[in-house]
Amino acid sequence: MQQIKKRPLRIGIIGGMGPEAGVEFHRLIIEATPATCDQEHLEVLCYSRPGIPDRTESLRKDNGARFVEAVVDVAKVLVNAEVHVIAMPCITAHARFAEIARHVPVPLVDMVDLAAAEIILHHRKAQKIGILATDGTIRENIFSIALRGHGFEMIYLGNEHQRLLMRTIYAVKAGRRDTSISKTMRALMGVLYDQGARAFVLACSELSLFYDDVTTVRVPVIDPLRVTAHHLVQMAFKARAVSSDVTTPNETTQPNTPSTLSP
Asked: Which domain holds residue 208?
């Protein structure tokens, strides 16, 4: 029997929300890949479209219609590049995940559902989950919906602290990467902790850039980008293993021998 070589799983990333988040997500995929050489890494295409409208503003002004249209357009470019699966490293954009997915003919990975599954599986004792997110994510109750029925309570910042978080997020989008950002994040996590939060979600892709600075031993920090990167790596290596098992008859096989391949 002769092995058929199938093209490896190709991952598409909808980048530009913000620009560093897409690149960081690609880096996390590389970091999560158990490769020993260049050739063992995964095929990844990141199309960064910085012109995608601000998701929080679009949700407020037009119910998300403008950003959905732009995101779907980026996804179509990736589909034309023959990706097998697409990730969207912007949590606020997941407010319209189902609508976007309906217009994309390949699987769109739900980062919110994956993060919620991580919380349910590994952090059930936390009960109260502190959410560091944009105004849009909070207004749309994205994590409350994803964790509904599992006994968790979402803990959010008050108005003043939420405004500080939004300023911090936009500072990162503007290129700020100094220690004051992580210091502010730790302070805001302390506010959530005082309100009873016993696990935190970095529910904005900009905040994922500071994961190493804010991770603590005492309180778990769930990063949807990291959870999704590991998920995609597992998916890719599972597909690779299945592909290596697929065989087809060679020239010495009898003509009437049934093929193991699906038509």
From this structure: 112-224
